[in-house]
Amino acid sequence: MIFSKSFGYALRSVLYVALVRDDKEKTQLDKIAVALNVPRYFLGKVMNRLVKEGILDSVKGHNGGFSINEITLGVSLSRIMDITGENEQFDSCVLRQQKCNSTNPCPLHRQAEAIKQKWQLLLSTTTVEDLLKKDQAGFIKSIAAI
After folding, report:
1. Cα 65 from Cα 63, distance rounded (Å)
2. Theoretical Cys-Cys bridge with 64: which of 9, 59, 73, 123, CB 3.0 to 4.6 Å?
């Protein structure tokens, strides 16, 4: 399974903001974009969706930026997928046939369905907090695209 850039940027940015939350300051978009090596403009759109959905908080202005809130750490990866429009891939045929389903399956339908169900279970039961590591420097490096 391959995730979209939107999902990757959303998850990595939430993880980054959660890791630097001890600074007591808001994390600015430019700092996140540089740290994660992602395009600022596209990241801004993704971050705004996360704020709109209540996953992150945001304050505008000179001392503004993004911060976690009471639900950030408990949000599931499946919820982030919903926000970025990624969950639609679970309904599509792996061979891209238009009418693939249990009554009209493609040659890989049954095998793919089993894998999709395992992925959905993993994503719905894994939270942002589950992904955080104690080795912050190493973890930030692992989520940065190099």
Report:
1. 7
2. 59
One DSSP character per residue, the chain reads: ----HHHHHHHHHHHHHHHTGGG-SPBPHHHHHHHHT--HHHHHHHHHHHHHTTSEEEE-STT-EEEE-TTTTT-BHHHHHHHHTGGGGGGS-TT--TT-SSSS--TTHHHHHHHHHHHHHHHHH-BHHHH--S-HHHHHHHHS--
Residues 127-141 pLDDT 10s: 999 988 766 667 767
pLDDT, tens digit, for every residue of 50-71?
999 999 999 988 888 999 999 9
CA-CA distance, 4 to 66, in Å (whole number)? 22
Share of the chain above pLDDT 90, in %: 50
Name the one residue in this structure whose structure tokens are 């190099």.
146
Which residue carries 């945001």 as its tokens? 58
